[in-house]
Amino acid sequence: NPHLEKMKEDILYHFALGTGTHDFPAMFGDVKFVCVGGSPSRMKAFIAYIAEELGLGSPGCDYPNICAGTDRYAMYKVGPVLSVSHGMGIPSISIMLHELIKLLYHAKCSNITIIRIGTSGGIGLEPGSVVITRQSVDATFKPQFEQVILGKTVIRSTNLDEQLAKELMQCSKEINQFNTVIGNTMCTLDFYEGQGRLDGAICLYNEEEKLQYLKEAYDAGVRNIEMESSVFAAMCNLSGVKGK
């Protein structure tokens, strides 16, 4: 964004951080991996796990929330790993990603990998399986993210880094603890009707129609359903960040 260069100070409002009040290179300059997920408590548990795996933390060690000045998102850091919550749905993760990408830019980070982790609804898979996303598709199975900007519809690609998918699959084979597949992830705008559930407040289709839709999704290569991957993929692509 060329407009950022004209700003005296960039305030990352929803992180309660700003270039005028915080030394971004000192705080985040060594970051190489960013893992994002919906829940603040999960992302705190994740950073504690990573700290132990990397030998950078001690048992019972507490990790402060870097974004404690706001209740919108939570952020934790250990070594080169940043763990950030993004809430539920495209609007919430979009806001977070705008500020996260700017944070990494102001911190002068390089060779960043961002990975979204979280629960999702599987299609044709055993519960507990891991899906590594090849590309995010919309509810009509198209690999695109559609957004209205200044009154005009803009369509952006949602393909994700293919080499990173292969590397993650190889890691899974070496760990050999859970079933892992590479497939398409369907991103919906809603948890209930958008995902074909029968238990929402409103439902104007029957179970047979639901199952037919899920079969069509499976045939299109979809292996799981969630609500954030499309804008995640689009923004990683546009900013030149390797994402999965």
From TrEMBL:
Protein EC: 2.4.2.3
Purpose: Catalyzes the reversible phosphorylytic cleavage of uridine to uracil and ribose-1-phosphate which can then be utilized as carbon and energy sources or in the rescue of pyrimidine bases for nucleotide synthesis. Shows broad substrate specificity and can also accept deoxyuridine and other analogous compounds.
The protein, known as: Uridine phosphorylase
Alphabetized GO MF terms: uridine phosphorylase activity
A Pfam family this chain is assigned to: PNP_UDP_1
Cellular component GO terms, alphabetical: cytosol
Ligand binding (substrate): 195, 197
Origin: domain of life: Eukaryota
Record has Glycosyltransferase as a keyword: yes
